[in-house]
Amino acid sequence: MDVARRYVGARKGLVILDLGCGTGRFSVVLADSFDASVLAVEPSDKMRSVAESQSAHPRVRYVKGDAERIPVGDNLCDLAWLSMVLHHIGTVEAGAAELHRVLKPGGIVLIRNSFRGRLESVRYYEFFPSAMALDNARLPDAETVRKTFEKRRFRLVAFESVEQVVDRTFGEHIDRIRQRGLSTFELISDEEFQQGIRLMEDAAREEDPTKPVTEMIDLLVFARCQEGVEQCMRRGKRAAISSLGSCRSASVHHLGCTWFGSKCAYRTVVCTVWWPKNLPIS
Ligand SMILES: C[S@@+](CC[C@H](N)C(=O)[O-])C[C@H]1O[C@@H](n2cnc3c(N)ncnc32)[C@H](O)[C@@H]1O
């Protein structure tokens, strides 16, 4: 949450949407960390009932709903938190449109997710050979998500990787993997799963028993545009539109960006874009 605070600031009394809250493990942390009221939306009755019993909090309300139809009024939320949810949503575009509706102008979306092609730091893939390919196939691609959110009038604020401790020791890590709770392990055969556990047990003999297991997780941050798309993009230093005319065609000094490489570096190129007639300019 320290990383999240960088984008949210020290404001108190926020209204936060925890979309796809699962068992509510982040809902309570969000309520406490930001002194916030949290609307925790979750489609699964089973998950919601666990959340209601195990993650009850006076400022968290668990509500049935999903990303495609968020059961929240317009312009209500200061922050939307989506942790490991994006790949469950039917279409990211529908989710982005709904998030734009429920957020206040300037509201922030924090997406905590693993993305396609960025899984090298996850330790257990070493032991389950087909798991990484399966996850790469189902996880979203960060660049596509960025484009989708920008189309839906969000501005990219940041894309960063955060190191997190997933288990205090390798032994605890094996115990957790053994429970087969991660959806990745529903996708591989029983045989591969049991073989992987045996390989982990062998590897444990060589491990420092006091060393925590860490993974990198990505945080993709967007701000809901307060104004039209073109001003918003300009503000985000992503595009400076010199003449929009009737929004059909424009000459653009585009600040291209290699965000999705290992480093962020802006470079200036001049190009001409076709600006779609029907792009909403409010
Ligand atoms: C991997 S869990 C993450 C739960 C929680 N955010 C966390 O990080 O602990 C994914 C959650 O997304 C929920 N989900 C599935 N489809 C969804 C949708 N269309 N909209 C919102 N949430 C969805 C699932 O029910 C599940 O609880």
Question: Can I get a quick summary?
Answer:
The protein has 282 residues and is of the alpha/beta class.
What are the SSEs and their pairings?
Elements: H1 2-8, E1 15-19, H2 25-33, E2 37-42, H3 45-54, E3 60-64, E4 77-83, H4 92-102, E5 103-113, H5 131-138, H6 142-151, E6 154-167, H7 170-178, H8 190-204, E7 213-224, H9 229-235, E8 239-243, E9 249-257, E10 266-274
Parallel strand pairs: 1-2, 1-4, 2-3, 4-5
Antiparallel strand pairs: 5-7, 6-7, 8-9, 9-10
Helix pairs in contact: 7-8
Bound molecules: S-adenosylmethionine (SAM).
S-adenosylmethionine binds next to helix 2.
Describe the protein's architecture and organization:
The protein has 282 residues and is an alpha/beta fold. Strand 1, helix 2 and strand 2 (37-42) form a beta-alpha-beta unit. The protein is globular. The chain folds into 2 domains: 2-162 and 214-226, 3-Layer(aba) Sandwich (Rossmann fold), CATH 3.40.50; 228-282, no CATH class. The chain has a 7-stranded mixed beta sheet, with helices on both faces. The chain has helices at residues 2-8, 25-33, 45-54, 92-102, 131-138, 142-151, 170-178, 190-204, 229-235, and strands spanning 15-19, 37-42, 60-64, 77-83, 103-113, 154-167, 213-224, 239-243, 249-257, 266-274. 30% of the residues lie in helices and 29% in strands. The chain starts with a helix and ends in an 8-residue tail after the last strand. It has 9 helices and 10 strands. The site of S-adenosylmethionine (SAM) has 19 residues, from helix 2.
